[in-house]
Amino acid sequence: NRLDADMEKALEQKEFFLVYQPQLSLKTGKLIGCEALIRWQHPTRGLISPAEFIPVAERTGFINSLGPWILDEACRQVKAWNDELSASIRVAVNISPIQFQRRDLLNSIKVVLEKNTFPPSQLELEMTETLMMTDTERVLLIIQELQELGMQISIDDFGTGYSSLAYLRKFDANVLKIDRAFVNDMVTNINDRAIISAIINMANSLEYQVIAEGVETTEQYVLLKELGCHAIQGYWFSTPLPPDDFIRFYNQHT
Ligand code: G
Ligand code: G
Ligand code: MN
Ligand code: NA
User: Fold this and answer.
1) Phi-psi region of 175 (alpha: psi -120 to 50; beta: other; left: phi over 0)
2) What is the whole-number distance in angstroms between the Cα of residue 151 and the centre of ligand 2?
3) Would you call 207 helix, strand, or coil by DSSP?
4) 50 in ligand 1 pocket by Cβ < 6 Å?
5) Count of domains observed in the chain
6) Which pLDDT band holds residue 212 (cuts at 50, 70, 90)?
7) What is the CATH number of the domain that holds 50?
8) pLDDT score of 1
9) Model confidence at 86, in pLDDT bands (50, 70, 90)?
10) Ligand 1 atom at shortest distance from the alpha carbon of 49
11) 224 is in which domain, residue-wise?
């Protein structure tokens, strides 16, 4: 496996780039923002999925270089859209639990925000449930401080961890993202549909926004709307897009 060796050079040679997947409000039919997702255009292997290289980067520690680059690139894009389009687009960025092990995470986020000035509420940070498995108190303090600075916090892949509800008791996130595993079968599987319905009701009581991921069919869209889900993300509506395509799409949906 040479991926780990190639990664260091890849950052210098600008082989990484971000794509942006639109998120559609089921209440207004307009975009509420997007999720930034990394891609790697490898010179010989072609396009490599983050599902393949993020785990490697987490293992080697390279994520501590790549993570800040991703955040900086996403924030630069938000700032550019604000300036060029006077649009105010919320961008969600995935943060790896490994990045939380670093003492300087909070400070590095502050530095990126100071470099690219925009309202912090336009930045959403996606955390997974595994984040809370170690060093809970310290992680909670960091999350609280990020929220006090005005950033939005979302729980990614909600429902797939073994402690989803315990996680919710511990801190106030702003957004719950229902994992696409539930959305996949919700039309034919009444258990999955009941779980989604319960998550939406719970999220409403807790005043979280709920985004369903992996929506691929009209049936899923209709059902999620009926169940009171706030927003969706998925191929039915749009795949992740390069910045120019995203803006074209954005203009068609505002
Ligand atoms: O975009 P795609 O579905 O191929 O992503 C596959 C996996 O890689 C998902 O679990 C996703 O959360 C993760 N991923 C994509 N982009 C990023 C990123 O910028 N940072 C981190 N930490 N994970 C990412
Ligand atoms: O783990 P996370 O939720 O961050 O991962 C998001 C991943 O889901 C990205 O890799 C993105 O490309 C992928 N994705 C987005 N929409 C769909 C969809 O409708 N179906 C499937 N199968 N994957 C999707
Ligand atoms: Mn995500
Ligand atoms: Na997810």
Assistant:
1) beta
2) 23
3) coil
4) yes
5) 1
6) very high
7) 3.20.20.450
8) 65
9) confident
10) 4
11) 3-252
